[in-house]
Amino acid sequence: KRSKHHTQGGFKLMPIISIDNNQGVLNFIDNLNLKLSKPQLSHLLNLMTGIVNIDGKRNISNISNKILQAKERSCITKFLNNSPWDEDLLNNARIKYALQRISPKEEEPIFVAIDDTVIPKSKNTKHIEGLGYHFSHSEGKVLWSHCIVSSQVITEEHSFPLGFEQYLNKKYCTENQLEFNSKIDIACNLLELFHQFNNNKNHSIYFLTDSWFTSKKIIEKSLSYGYHLIGGVKTNRCIYPQGIKIKISDFVGYIEDNDLDVVTVKGKKYKVYRYEGGINGIDNAVVLICWEADSTVEKPTCIMSTDIELSTITILEYYSKRWNIETSFLYLKDRLGLKHYQMRKLKGLKRFWSIVYLAYTYVEVYRFRKSQEQKEFTLGDAIRSIKGVTFQDLIKFIYHKAANNVAIDELFKILKIAT
Predict the structure, then answer these.
(1) Which of 269, 66, 104 minimizes the C-alpha distance to 203?
(2) What is the pTM of this model?
(3) Which helix (H) or strand (E) is 378 found in, with range?
């Protein structure tokens, strides 16, 4: 009976992974020029390889058991909790590398999406630091969880994760004597981080946010760098048609059918009212009040752009790029182990997450290279392809051991297979 865990070639991926010949990962790490000792580098390579290659949970126990060169779980945990290395330097090196990889065409804009995601945990896990009650947009309710605010750079050819920062609520910060940063504060930090390493300042830059992050503070921060913001807007926000202050939800009642334009974006038709003027402390912006043409939903979706020169269709097309960060969260959590951690300390958590983000960046680099040979090569295709290459490396490893007359019992021991 075939297992559901198969490589593209139809073979079940063995539960033991070798990285002896994983030159791609080694070259990728070398390009980052990280200041790590040999033991630290070994842990990093083992964790990255396990995160990308193993099936099931990408937690410390499984990585320790399924990576040939990996140390015991306690050694990996010490590397994450106590070893003297700077995860911020690793993150900055990764972000700098990612932004150097993007090379948009002369007229092509660059998009940076910012959003938050929650990682639910069992209520029995109160011993893990940093947990609190956070609202989950996907679940539509408050969950006992960790919360991360993250940014994603998007071009026609690439989609890289950039900065991330854990959000800790006021209650947790007060109880643990930590400085509190709101999600808006964190988003501003991520904008600043992008600006610090952005080497494409001659291109138009658009920050993409949902309605939770479309705030005056973030808008002013982006404009101060010469960038624009396109973001969702709640209908309780006020606009000023003909100088009269009114909530969008109330203004909708005055919109007639002949006031609407019908536009098509990615095969979908929308009815759109275009407003230009002030909105909640912003002197001049465009607000699109939109309904899907075939929908019976009465409440509109509202999108704001600080670039008033953009056409209605262009604003909608640009805003649709924000979906990249939603799919990024899915891959990070479900395919690369962002939610599979076993760490208790905040420092270890951040370091594990940093390595997950690093693994994602490597997969995206691999995906882009393969997409030059094969069109429509997705991130999922890249992960499956990497697993296939790793499986081939494992077969070569076993073949060479056998060719050198390594006894079968010794080989079982090397492969961590109980006899």
Answers:
(1) 104
(2) 0.92
(3) none
